[in-house]
Amino acid sequence: MASNIRRIGILTSGGDAPGMNAAIRAAVRTCVLHDVIPIGIHRGYNGLIHSDVVELDARAVNGITSRGGTILYTARSEEFRTEAGVKQAADNCKYLGIDGVIAIGGDGTFRGARELSKYGINTVGIPGTIDNDIACSHYSIGFDTAANTAIEAIDKLADTMQSHQRTSVVEIMGRNAGHLAIYVGISVGATSIVIPERPFDFERDIAEHIREGQYRGKHHHLIIVAEGVGNTNEIANRCRDEMGLDTRVTIIGHIQRGGSPSARDRVMATRMGHRAVEEILAGGTNLIVCYRNSQITTIPIDEALTMTKDLDEYMYRVAQEITI
User: Active-site residue numbers?
Assistant: First the structure.
């Protein structure tokens, strides 16, 4: 372990995700175990720029694993996007005696960590986003909980749709990725799943599926649309105008970001938080802790940011073949 590491800062940045608190707790407890002082940084990189920090201990993180959101709060910092902002944050780290920073978030968070590392601050990122779109990691904290939240809401929605023999068009979060929409769509038995990674054709992707369902005696239909597609209401209008269906739109929205984390998110976040501290204590910097091939490992941020995450072709094929 690196003997020169005395204080490690922990921050959450960008969109919140269920499980972030479990990662914070694990990082704090691992610091305490190694006689390192954990420093909570409020509101992401804004907190570093403005020295909005608090010294933590093992007791400070009691009971937070089951809580959604992040006890450190989160924000996006326009000021940190400038060279002056990064330098100010780095100078404050040195003034406060923070030798390393663990940054929990998405690609923007990791870019910030990379810039901070150029000033001699050991930085390690942890993927936390419900979109599960971090290319270097097969799993991101928050995905499982967000999927379960959407599934629970849609199961309830399906009851009333069936009662009225209606068609429901449901928008799922995920930013510009369709990973969450596919996962949820398969889980709820959607008639059609529309994602931004594939060209959309109304007749092929929706109308034919609905007609096939009607031929089999189905009178209510569920269409899942990833938010990155951007035309949820248009799809619903076409179902009504061109197919004569009684259609309703439901945008589940930000409730997918909240709620008590699932067991999977709690355990994954704990493993990643523990590993992040170990990497910094070993002298590691400019790294992302990630989940690949069923193992917790690390990858350089520079390499990670050049990677792209493709759609799981098998999952997509399953969705297409069984969702009628």
Answer: 131
